[in-house]
Every structure is written in C-alpha cells, then in structure tokens.
Amino acid sequence: MSQTADEQIRPTLDALVERLRASVADQVSVAAEQLVNSVEAAWRAAVEHAVQQAVVTAERETAARLNEAFARREEQVKEAARAEWFAVGMEQARAEAAAAAAAREAEMQAAVAAREAEVRAAAAAQDAEARAAADAADKATAALAARLDAAMAAHREESARLLRAIRLLDDAASLSQALEALGVAAKAETDRFALFLSKGDVLRAWSHTGFPGLEGESSSDIPLPEAGVAADILHTGQACQVEPGGSGRPLFAGVHGADSASAFVAVPVTMNGQVIAVLCGEQSDGHEGSERLLAVFEVIARHAARVLETLTALRLAKLGSHVSQVVAAPPPQ
Questions:
Q1: I need a labelling partner for 296 at 20 to 30 A (CA). Which of 66, 113, 222, 303 fits?
Q2: Which residue, among 215, 167, 202, has the nearest Cα to 188 in the 3D structure?
C-alpha cells in the first residue's frame, strides 16, 4: 500500500470537516437568523422606545409650548382685560373727576355769588351807614353851625349891650345918672337884679326888678344881717357867686321854692378903695349863665365906678373953682 495514513484519513477528515462546516453553517445561519431576529427585536424595541420617548418628549414639548402659549394668551387676555378695566376705570375716574369738577365749579360759583351778594349787601350797608353818618354829620354840622351862629349872635348882642351900657355910663352927667345907667345896663342882662347903696347898717335899694322880697316893700332898706353876701362884699370888696341852696344867699332873693333854683351873683362898686354900692343879680339858665352874668356885672360895675370917680372929681373940681372964685371976689361995697 502506497497511501499514507494522512491520505487515508483525509477523506474522513474532509467529510467530517464538511459536515462540521455544514453544521457550523447551519448553526451560524440559525444563530445569524436568531441574531438578526434578536437585533430586529431589539431594534424594534429601541425604535419603539425611541418613538415612545420622542412621543413623550414631543408631548412634553407640545404641552410646554401649549402651556406657554396658553400662559401668554392668558397674560395677553389679562393684560387686555386690565387695559380694558384701566380704560373703564380711567373713563369712570374722568367722569367722576368731571362731575366733581362740575360740582366744585357750581360750588365755587355759588360761593362767589354768595360772596358777591355779601359784598353788595355790605357795600349797601356801608353806603347806608355812610349816608346816615353823612346825614348825621350834616345835621350835627348844621346844629353846630346853628349853635355857633346863635352863640356868635348872642356874643354880638352881648357885646352890643355891653357897648351900649358903657356908652350910657359915659354919657352920664351926674352921680345919679351914672347909677341909673348902671341899673339900666344890669336890667338889660337879666330880669332879676338889684343895685344897693351902702348906708351905714343897711343896704338901700337904688333900683331893682324881679326879686319878690323887694317888691311891695314899704322900706327899700335891707339890714346887713339879712343881705348875705351882698353885705359881706362891703368888707371883702370881692365879687362872689352863691350856688343854689348855698349859704350866704340874701333873704330878699328867696331861700325856698323856685327862687332858690338859680345862682346869685354880687359885685362891688368901688370908689377910691371903698365899696359904695353892690350890684346883685340872678341868672336862671345854669352855671354858665351865672358865670357870664358875674363877668358882665363886674365889667359894668368897674366902669361905673370909674365914671363915678370921674364925675366926683369933676364935681369937686368945679366946687373948688367956685369956692376960689367966691374967695377971690371983692367984698360988696
């Protein structure tokens, strides 16, 4: 035998190898198919999982986008609603503000009208007061002017009376005429007066009028104790005034009743420092009238005293001249 053992076993090995190849091929084919099926299943599972994941992701993204869109829409709606509400509120606020402004304007107009009415009323009241004050001032001015005119007229009349009295005294040619002129001047000033001459313990009435105590008396001599201040003047030589109810009022002037309602005045008529006469009087128009009467009586009494002194001096001069002529005349043959 010329074949070796390798050659002898080769076909067996080849057949074995072929079978193994076929078996391996079958197994590989089965395995491959299984692998393919497994891979395909895995791929399907993976695809399904991926699809599911994609679907879930897509759903999530879609839901998120939808939620976001819904949120934006909701925000837009809210913003629109807010804008609308704001516009409505603004419109309402404008309407309320306009109504309030109209109310304030009406209120202001009413206040202005009321104030104007008050001002007009105040102005009218002031005008009325001014007119009343002007009328009152005019009346007061007229009354004052009337009083001033009356006072000036009274003063002119008094001055005229005083001038007439001075002239009448100056025209006296004797002591009796001077005393009569003094009485006339006193009577022109008041309706109650008396001119007394000093005669020892009495005052002798030279002329008088208006005193009830001197009217109808048989004797015109007034004892000094009953003459009051008229007797005191003989010693003091000072003019005086006795208020109603005061002490020193003469009895002839009346102490009780209506006669004591006015002041009594008395002034001296002095010659060479000696009181020779007393001029008395009464004024019934109050204190000021008594003061005036006292001043006027003192003026005419002083002037009468100067006239009496002048007349006395002239009389003495004439008497002295006559005596000189008698002494110088030659004795009768």
A1: 222
A2: 167
